[in-house]
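Hi Y.,

Following your request, here is the sequence exactly as I used it, all 420 residues.
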Amino acid sequence: MDEHTARQVTRNIMPLLGISFFVSILDRVNVGFASLTMNADIGLSAAAYGFGAGIFFLGYFAFEIPSNLILQKVGARRWIARIMVTWGLLSMCMALVQGPYSFYAVRFLLGLAEAGFVPGVVYYMNQWYTKREIGRATAIFFAFGPIANAVGAPLSTALIEAFDWRWMFIIEGIPAIILGIVVFLRLPDRVEDAKFLNNSQKSVLRAQLQAEGNSAAKHASPLSALMDLPTLALALQYFLILTTGYALNMWLPQIVRELGVQTSMVGWVVAVPYIAAALAIYFWSRYTKYTDDRLFYVLIPCALGALGFVIGALTTNPLISMFAFCCVAAGIYAGGSAYWALPRPAVSGAAAAAAIALANSLGNLGGFTGPYLFGIIRDTTGNYEYALFVAAAFLLSGGLMSFVNIRLARRREALIVAAR
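Below is the corresponding structure, written out as tokens. Let me know if you'd prefer a different format.
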């Protein structure tokens, strides 16, 4: 893909995809800010809140692979639009919860509704970008995550202060419904449908993407791709990273409040680490574009984040703590973004959709494990220090998994070449 075509594709599809991801993150983690007053209102302990915050990802896991296979059949435009409208409605239903069980139920259904969005978008982007360009494209897409946290933190706390946590869920659920309609009307399903490319550009891009697809391994069925060792290893790495990422998202507001920050200011303080994360994604993606040493794409950011967790556990100084959490957020988000630039399992078609969904869905089980584990440790010990040490171990292990995944990818490439 030449630079001009890549820029045209990026200008025409990435803003809509990125803004949609922004809204998905906002609706996924705003429960962390609601918890500042919601927990007392409906009678949630730390463990109960952690379980409810995390049960979203059990629903997400249950429907992730079927969702991506449906997307591959019916097209991204229709299915992503359906996902967004459904999760917007269920996010608004969070205003109706009255106790732990209704909280668990709506969070689980919200996970079911949103399942398939991120892996669906990643699969969709792979239908538009060559292997050379996909790393930069995914970095742009995932950069909207920390931006959503940075903007959503003060926005959510401001809405809670102005109204209450129930109205916050209602107001923040509306944009997903509107964007779902826009996606249905504007997002092109295939290269052939792109009005922003001329016929010559479409032909060249289709030929390049087809050539890369033909070099992939052919699995007999999507199910056989799910038994692929490199796919499972990639999923384990993503699980380790996301366990810490969602623990940070769901618990950082309460950790910041325990540092002595007033509730009205929590959102502004929490925004700072996510601004650092957005900058880290930008600069790290620029660096990784100019190096082929993929071994350190994920390892270096994860090591930085793990160090931040350790510093946060060892200090009680608010300024040092915030510096530590800036390192944590930068490491998690830069590492998580770079993860998608690692060599993917060499499969195509429905098998590729299933493999991407498996890696993302197993990884997102970390979204259940992290918040729930934090809640259990918090209830057991009365503080967050031990939880931060555990998070550091998970994140560093996620970075070190790069050694395994790079080796498995190189072995797979050698086998494909030898079989030709």
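The radius of gyration is 21 Å.

Thanks again,
Q.
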